[in-house]
Structure formats: C-alpha cells, structure tokens
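hey can u run this one w/ FE2/S2 (inorganic) cluster bound, need the structure tokens asap thx
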Amino acid sequence: MSTSATTIFSPETAARFDRLVTLYPVKRSALIPMLLYAQDEIGYISDAVVVEIAQRIGISELDVRSVLSYYSMLRTKPVGKYNVQVCTNISCMLRDGYGIMEHCKKRLGIGHKEVTSDGLFSLEEVECIGACCWAPAVQINYDFYDDLTTEKMDQILDDYKAGRGKETV
Amino acid sequence: MADVTFTVDGKKLTAPAGTLLIDACKNAGIEIPAFCYYPNLSLQAACRMCVVRIEKMPKLQTACTTPVAEGMVVQSETDEIKQARKATIELLLGNHPLDCPVCDAGGECELQDMTFKYGAAESKYIEIKQHREEQQWSPVVYFDRPRCILCYRCVRVCGEGMDVWALGVENRGVSSVIAPNGQDHLNCEECGMCIDLCPVGALTSGTYRYKTRPWEMNHVATICTHCGDGCKTTLGVRSVNDGVEIIRGDNRDKSGINGDFLCNKGRYGFDFANRTDRLTKPLVRQADGKFAEVSWDKALDFAAKKLREIREAKGGQAIGVIGSNRTTNEENYLLQKFARTILGTNNIDHHRTADYVSFASALNGKSGRTAGLRDTTSAPAILLLGNNPTDQHPALAWNLRSNVRLNRSRLYVANHAEIKLRRQAKSFLQIPQDGYASLIQYLGGNDGAIAADDNTTAFRDAIRKEESLLIVFGSEYRGRDIQALVEFGLSLPNTKFAALGDYANSRGAADMGLLPDLLPGYVPVNDAAHFVDEYGATLPTTAGLDLLQMFDAARNGDLAALYVVGSNPVSRYGVDPSALKNTFLVVQDMFLTETAQLADVVFPAANLYEKAGTVTNTYGDIQLVKKAADKAGVRTDFELIVRLADRMGADPKKLVPFGRGSFADMGQTRGAQSGEADRHAVWLAANHLEPKLSPFDPFATLDEIQRLVPSYHVSRLELLTGSEQPEKFDLVQIQPAASRRDLVLPAEDTLFTSGTLGRYSGMLKDIVESHTTPNPAETAAD
Amino acid sequence: MPRLVFHPEEVKIISRRFGQGAADIDKYIALDGYKAVQTAIEKGVDWIIAEMKASGLRGRGGAGFPTGMKWSFVPKQSERPKYVLVNGDESEPGTCKDHVIFLHDPHAVIEGTMIAGLAIGSKMGFIYLRGEYRYLLKIMEKAVADAYAKGFLGKNIFGSGIDFDIVTQTGAGAYEVGEESALMESLEGKRGVPRIKPPFPAVVGLYGGPTVINNAETIASVPHILLMGGEAYAKVGSERNGGTRLFGISGHVVNPGVYELPMGYNLKKAIYEVGGGISNGRKLKAVVPGGSSTPVLTADEIDVGLDFDQMGKAGTMLGSGGIVVIDDQTCMVEFALRTIKFYQHESCGWCIPCREGTDWLKKTIGRVHAGGGVAKDLDNIRYLAENMLGRTFCPLGDAAAMPTIGFIKKFRHEFEDHLNGKPCPYAHAEEPALV
Ligand SMILES: Cc1cc2nc3c(=O)[nH]c(=O)nc-3n(C[C@H](O)[C@H](O)[C@H](O)COP(=O)(O)O)c2cc1C
Ligand code: SF4
Ligand code: FES
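ok here u go:
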C-alpha cells in the first residue's frame, strides 16, 4: 500500500509507514512501531487504525488486535492530551511513588486510567519505567520526570497546563 | 527415521527418533495427561500437565515437546509429578467456575477427568471468581470465557487445520482471552472443530448446548448424509415420545476416514430429522385433488394396485423409477431389482453428480488405480483438477491441507476459480472455465492446447516429474474428457485417481445400477445372464429411459407411472408440474418436497440416520451405516420397496434373499438401543453367521450384492466393525461406450447447503443467513 | 534527565565516556570509538571469540551466561541469515542501567553489535528498546544514522568487504518481551510470548536464523574488552566473573544512582559507601539485590560479593544488578504485594502456573495486606509460589515465585501481624489498583 489518498494518517506518518515495512526482513516486524506511531498521531488505536495497518502489513485485523492488546502502552480508547504515568513499582514506591500518585489524583481530580473533563490530562499508574535510581519517576507522554516531590509535580502539571510542557512524540 | 531405545517407568521402549515422548508413551500404553497438546497441531507447552522427570535434567520436562532420544530415562508418574499436575489443576480451578452440573462438557470434560485423577478436590481458592457472560459467536458457536483454560487448541485447529484463522488470543496474562475475528462474532467456515477440540465446556455448540447430559445419550457412529466424502459422524441420540431424537453430531471416536475432521454439515446438519413437519402418515390424493392421510395398508394397496394395473395394461416401459443419492446401497440395489424384475422396466435413473460410468470405463479394470479418501492424507503429490473441495468436499480439503502441512506433500491445483486450496498449492494454475479438457491435452504434451507461459510449463514439468501422483478431479470432467484424463494419468508411473461427486451415496447409486443402461456393477443390461440366474427372473434387455427422457415421455403422455424414491427431480431439473399430470406419481420422502406435492401417493420415509446398511463415498470407500434415530410413522425405503413388491403380488423372498444361504439366528433389529444386537452382529459375522430372518434385513441384500458385484466383495467383518472398505474398482469390467449422453448435473452446494435436504435444516439456514456471502444456490435440490 | 553520579570506588570501563558527549559520533571517535571494531576486523573471528572468552564476561541481562561461549554456539554455516539482537527492553523493576548507556554512549552499543556480528558471521543487527524509552530510541536512531553517514555501517564496513546493517526497534510496554525468545516474537510483530526451547536462539532465532541475543550492557562492554584485552578485563572482576558492571542502587539510600563497580564488589559496601548509606538516618531492613525477581536478603545477609556465584551461594541472584535498598520503616507485605502485582500484570498468560499463580498470589497477598487475611493464606501463598517454581514455560513464573517465597520465608512475622489484625505499622495511603 502506498501513501495514497485513502490513508487516515498524515503524509509524514504515512511515509514513515511506507518506509518501516521495508526495513525488516519481514513486513510484519513493522507492526508494533507502526501501532505506536499511529497511536501518537491519532491518540489511540481506533478501528480505522487497525484496518489500515492490517492492510499495510497484509495480516488480519484479528492479528493486529491480538498483538495490540498484548502491549500495555497501546490503547484502544483516547486518553488526555498529556498522559501522566506514575510509576509506583518498588524503587519508586520506596521513595513515595504512591504519594505522587495520590497527589496527582487530587490535583487532577481523576483516578487511574481516567481523563480530565477538559481532555487535557489523563492519569495512569504504571509499572517500572526504568528510572529507578532517580525515583520517584513519572512519564508524561514520552518525557521522563524524576526525583519528584509533590511540589515538583505541581510545577510540572502547571507547566503543562500553561502549554509550557514538553511535547515529545 | 531410525529407532531409538529409551526407558519409561522402568519399561524399555523403542520408537522412531524424533517421536515426541508424549506420543511414544501413548503408543506404549502410558497415558500422559495434556490439555494443550493435540496430535498434529503445533506445540505449545502451555498447560504444563505433561511434565515428566527425565534423568540428568534439572527440572521437570514437558513430554509434549521432548523428542525421545537414545538412552533417555523417564519417570512419568512419581509423587513429584503427581504433585506438579495436581497443583496445575488447582491453579486452573482457582478461577474456574464450578458449574459442572450445568456445563455441556460435564461428564466428558478433560479438566474434570484430571481433577478426579489427581485428587485436586480441596478448594484453596477463596478469592472472588471472575464472572463473564456467555457470548454467542455464530449460530453454532458459543463461548463461555470463564471456563476456558487457554489450551489454544481451538486457535490452532482453526488456523493450522482449517486455514481459516478466525480465532486468536487477545490481552495478556490472566486477562488473556480467545477472541473471534469479527470482534464479537465469528466469520468462518462454521466447521465446529474448535468445539470438538475444546477439552472443557468453553466452546459449545448451538445445536446442543443445555439440551442434555452426555450420559443420557446413546452415541451411534454412522456416516454423514451430506456430501460425497462420507465422514463418520457420531450421533448423540435420546428416546423421545415419537421415537429417538438426534441431539448432537460430533466426531468423538475419530476412527472414521475423516480422522479428526468433521464439517458443519456433519456436525450440525442433522436437525432435519427432528422436524415436526416431517411426513409421518401416508398421503393419497383424493378425487378433490387434495391429499388425505390414510393408513399404510390403504396407501400401499392403492399404489401397488395402480402400478400393477399400469404394468399389465401398458408394460414396464410405461413406468419410470428415480432413485436417490442418499439412500443406502442395499436400497438402491433393491430399487433397481424391483424396477427390473417386478415393474419390468429399465427406465431407472438418478440425479447424477459425477460421471462414474465413464470413470469406470476409462479405468477398464486396471487395478490399484483408485484412491480412497484416506489416501489423500498421505499421497506425496496430488493434482487437483476442478471442484472446490473447501465448499464441496470439506474432508478432502482438510486432508489436502493436513498432508501439505504435516508431510510436505506437493499439491498442484488447476481451477477456473481462485479456490482457497491454492493457498496450500505448490503451484496453482488458473484456467478458463471451459479449459479443463484442453489442460489435459496440454499436460499430455500438446503445447498449443492452451495459452502456455512460464507458469504453465513449470506446472506441467513439475507434474510430469512426479513419480507417484494422485489425480483428484471434479465433475468438470465427463465422458471423453475423463478418458483423456485417465490416459494422461496412466502415462505417468504410479498415478491413482479419484472422481468427485456429490452426496452421501451418489457413487453407490451408480454402482448399484440406478442407470437405464447398466445393471449393478456397470454390467450392460443386454448382458444380464448372471442376474437372471440369481434373480430367477427375466430382465428387460434394452436400455431404458434416462431421467430427462422420462420427463419428456411424461410430457408426451408416454409415462403412465413414476416412482420417485428420496429425490426431488421436479425442483432440481425445473420440471413443469403439468408434465406429470397424466402420470401416476408415487413418492417416498421425508418432506412434502416440490416433487412430493405433485404425487398421487406419498410414503413418509426414513433418512440415512434412521436405517442400517452401507453407503459408498465418491472415492469408493464402502462404509457401514448404523441406525441411530427413529421416528414414529416413517418407514425405511428398503421396507417400503419390499412391501410394495409384496402387495404387487411378488414374492418378497425372491426380492430379498432372507433366510437363504448360511445360517440364521434370532434376528435382532438394529437400532439405537441395540448395542447388544450390534455386538451380537459382530460376533455372528466373525463366525460367518448372519441374522437373516427378516425380509427387511438389508444385510441379506448386501449378500446378494456381494455375490453379483465383484467390486463389492470386501470384508464383511471389517465393514460391520465400522472400518471403511475400498471398493475393488479394478473388478469393474466395462466396455468403453461409443458415446453416452452427458447427464451430469453437479450439486453446486456450498459449505452450508445440501440440496433439498439442507433446506430442511434450520441450523444450516441460520448459518446461511448469518453469512451474507457466499450466497447459497437456493434451488439446490436432491 | 537521569543524573550522573560518581564515586571513587567505581572502576570506569563501560561508563568511561559517560558525561562526555559521546552520543556525538565525532566525540565518540575521539574517545577511541570504532577502534575496537576495526581491530576486530583485522584480527578475525577466532581472535574475537578468544578475547571474549578470556574476558570472563557474563551476560548482563540477568542469567549471567558467558558471552564468548554463547557466541561460539552459533553455527558457522547456515542456510538462513544470522542476526545479532541487542536486548534493551530493560523492564526489571530496580533496573535502569541500560538507560544510561543508551543516553550517554549509544555508539558503544552500535560498535558492540558490529563486533558480535563479525564474530558470528551476521550481516544484520537489531537494537530493541522498550517502548517507554522513546527519547533514547531517538538518540539511538541518530547514532545509527550518523554511523551510516560515516560509512561505518552498510556496505563494506571499514573496507573489510563485509556488510553490516543495524535497525532499531521499539517495544510497546511488556516486561516479558525482555525474555530473549519473546523479544524475537515481538520483533517479528507478534505477541510477546516466549518460544519453546530447544531449539535455542543460537540455532533457530529471529526469522528462523541463528541469532545471538545480548543485553545492551553486555554488548556495550564488548568494544572496551577488545580495546583493553580480555585478560585485563577479566582481572578487574572476581573469579569466573570478569570485569565490571553497572549497578543501580535505588530505594532508601542517600545517593541512589548507577555505579560501575567490579564484579564481586561487596554488597554492604555498595550500600553504605557507594550508596552513601540509608537515607533519613534510618536502619536497613532488607535488600533486593538484583532486580525485583531476586530473592530478598535481610540486613544480616548482605556481607556478600556482587557476582553471579557468590550471590547464588547466598540464596539469591545477581540478576540485573538493580540493588533495591529497603529501610526499617517499610512494610514487607506491601513490598511483596507490589512485587507480585508487577508479575501478575506482566505475565504473558501463556502457561497455566504463571498466569493463574501470579493472579492468585496477587489477590491473596492483597487481601492479607488489606487486613482480610485468614490463617491458611500464608501457607497457601507459599504453596502456590513453590508450585509455580520450575514449572512454568519461561522464567517469569520463577521470577514471581522466588521473591514471594523469600518474603514469606524471611518476613513471615510481618504477614502474621497483618493476619492478627495489627494495624500495619508502616501504613501507606491506600494504593490504587493497577489494571
Ligand atoms: C521474564 C524475563 C525478562 C527479561 N528481561 C530482560 C530485559 O529486560 N533485558 C535483558 O537484557 N534481558 C532480559 N532477560 C534475559 C534475557 O532473556 C536474556 O537472557 C538476555 O537478554 C541475554 O543477554 P545476556 O547474555 O547479555 O545477559 C529477561 C528474561 C526473562 C525470563
Ligand atoms: S503444556 Fe504441556 S501438556 Fe500441555 S501439553 Fe504440554 S506441556 Fe504438555
Ligand atoms: S521502580 Fe520506578 S522507575 Fe523503577
């Protein structure tokens, strides 16, 4: 499938997908990166994403769903513009990861896997994100914030709210 | 591969190197439990039930993934192993619903059996169990998620076995769940193999669920009444007020030619038998033109009297007989005997779905050239010409796929359509719809016969290099084309052939002489000496009218009577009802079909599941049909023919040679509840004795068939124990006819249709309706 | 951004270029970059393998398999292409060492991959990073692109006539994908379910070809080993445990961070000297010495050398080198619960003991922690964990069972206190559910 008018993705993403399927000895190896990049653009893995990616790779939609539902970063429902992922795994827990989580809940007024009514933030308790030595740590979308305190967390959320947050995709 | 020697539980065993330990043990009578392992499907090692202790290995090993090796020392059932298995079951049962009392699988559940065996009775689990509602995925497939133990058998059989890939796994960890390809429903071939292989009650059948308990049924393994493959289906039956009802069809003993396989028709397409609108009383048309229900005596007398009058007034040539593709060999044989000796006519035919006559004459007695269905699981190379087995011969399709997958058999497919089996084909050639004959010329060396390119040359070269080829051809080939095809095949070293026709006994119908010019065994009607001797009666010696000629004759007022047994030609051949208005029409059927509606007398008939006898599938495998069900009010076609003959004044003893020949016993009936009688029958057969006291005993007729039709001279003992017996087609000696009229009309059934019969299956109808494509041929009839 | 830490006890080999801008290819070259691979080309396969064997390098992914030996298992002749696979899935709680390698020295990973490729006769390598490491993936992608731009990758590398390509790949959130065969499945675009072994990856791996898979740190060590010589590297470490490794010290220490210490370094010293001791002036209660799957050590058990063999003798494992330090104000039941929750969440679900066992354990320990435990729960926890051990399809089940057994064995009194209705002395805010 070439970057045709039928794609639901932006020209850049479509072009990236065209390239991705050529990188590996088998097309299907592009599946997981494609799903991740599709999610970055669309916000979640919609049915339309499943359909198009299945076609691009030449596998069934069931295959795509079977894979996407395995990986915890891939989601089939929209989240907030800024997805706040608080690690509470052991190293973070020992350094008040739960406190950060609780604080975020209160600050944002939402619980685990919920979205603020303005759609700006969503909150998620996550497993270890590989920042144990700089705990407690949080990832907002793909950006790491570590050595956190509740005050620092407030500052970060304020920054995002004010549009000063990082926007790494 | 070379054998290796190893020790299990102190016993020295040998097996070919590479055999999986679990299979090697099983062959030696050592049962190793397994949920996820299933022979011939890919390995999973997921359930961990098959763990064994192998010397020098630090941990318990899975027998399902360990090939046996020279000198291997194995313990299969120590305390340590028992504990491991017990714990695994406990872990499974933790979150498993304990609804065994209402679960369909209760009583035939592998998890129950293992729990019993390993004594995992104490419930350690005190957490809240997860409940999920049961889901309906298709008219025939239901899924109860909490019962699923994630053995992945269903996923594998659907993908690897069926090449459908409609099932997958979604989510992970304890949330893992089997998921259908349509998100909340299945888009598939509805074969039900997933249900069959499910070791527990997670996948259940729409036709069976919550109907009964397994131990309340009798299980009768008989032959499916639908397509020409002749699969063994096990019918679960139960006594009801008006007989014995069929509750389910499945493939529990797996001893049939279909191995592990059964398609949706064999599995669910039995429900026509239980319909309340079945005919159960004879009908006779009254002066006002309406049917009236009358007694058997009246109906039989009336029909017999009329037939006799017509025979006497106008002679046998004014009477026609049309037989069936779904009645037994004995019935078909009896019907032609009845037609020829009592009605005195050769006007007899049936709906022909393949040109078995030309096939027989092309082979002309060559031995070892026909293939049974089982051969398709092992042939090293197969050429499939025409047909679409996925739709029309599901068991053949399964075998071809399995053979390619498991044995790397080379499959060559030539077809005018892109049939699904091309996916298994080593090479696929798409040809024009009218190109089948030319293809043979091309394969035989005539380069100009088709527009050849690299692909076609490669196809031909590959086939001609094969040293042992099995050619399976569809009804695209008839008459001279079959001759040419066989000639080409015989030019290669070890070719075998199989001709594909439709319906459970179309091959038997041809073999048994439901043909105007040929007697049973393809003996020309003018060469009937043998038959005359056996029958002690003269037979008409000129060829009779074929099926189309009979209707022409009726239209012209030259056919005074027509006797139709288990067939619906009016619908199938689009006969104008007015053509039959001056013909006395007698019909035997289960339902008031388009043909029966025009009849003067209608006899309610039993179907294949309600009688005993034999049938012959399209490959020539002769198989035993056992009586499973019963319906008050109906009679077998066999009985009806005998009674009609009797009332016409014929001697039933001459029609059915009962009481003649060997020895007699107390003559038990064969029925659903006749386990004893069946065992008794086997014993009798083993001692060359047969119960033959009844004029309605089809086995008396089988005796006669075996006397007169050399190709049916197969082991009676094996037949009675339920093994298929290949017809000895090489004993068929038939002169190639100069030219025969082509009367072949393929059934064109889809996976979900089965002629007229299929239209009376509510389940098949539901399936058809739930599948927007393919569109079934609404006119399918037979 | 992870902060870099330094300690005089460190022996800087693999972390030599950290903090020096080596992500820039020119800087990397200036710091002896891409020298090792050129030497390797010159000296040939046998030399590489010999050096690697001499180095005593054991895999840094957790199992500690000797790397030189692993490489030598790959058949010389193969019908299918061979591959090198770099495992940067780093998801074991307590572990963040590969993180700093990708961040500070991405070219070392590339160079190591090339050398592994030379050693086994492969033309293609994959560097697989966990999905959460997007910013590191970008750094790696840039490094790979720069290496191509310089002609270091691609056709005819360093004029050797050998071609070598590297492709980066991202996961999408799954711990189990760190298991080598599951990683191959993932890289092939499938669910991260491990494969049946044998065959082992060295014979049938990625795309069915012989494959060497190594942890990112293992791979990044390779150029350094070739530069300094296998024997010299081996000498730095302890017996049968060559060289150094990156230890992540996290939890209740004054100076958490990733430190490069020689193999065999004393754990107690690592905590009290390198890590600066227990934070907030508290006392040590326990240490999880090598990532969350390694059995816990009590404060009395930590006078032990940090290498695969000594840790094994101490009844635990070196694992991924993630030392998690737990002070005396920590509830071990809660710690056990958080650990098992992780494994329950990450179990791939393939096999029964792991799928059902982790879930059951999580529920039971959760109930005990919440005060709803009953007497038989404690034995049941142990029964379940012991019956998972060694019975699962892949080591994740063991990774869940081993620490659980450790907690209930060594801190049974804390579980009993919860049973006996004593309020948890270290009670936390109520924790949210992770689904
Ligand atoms: C459940 C599980 C998770 C694992 N996760 C990782 C991981 O994140 N990173 C890693 O390098 N190795 C991980 N491993 C170990 C790998 O399977 C493999 O042993 C390692 O990548 C080999 O590299 P090495 O020899 O360099 O250590 C994991 C193993 C298991 C069983
Ligand atoms: S998982 Fe197994 S039982 Fe199931 S079959 Fe195997 S390991 Fe064997
Ligand atoms: S435990 Fe929180 S980042 Fe590792």
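Confidence is low (pLDDT under 50) at residues 661-675, 774-781 of chain B. anyway lmk if its weird
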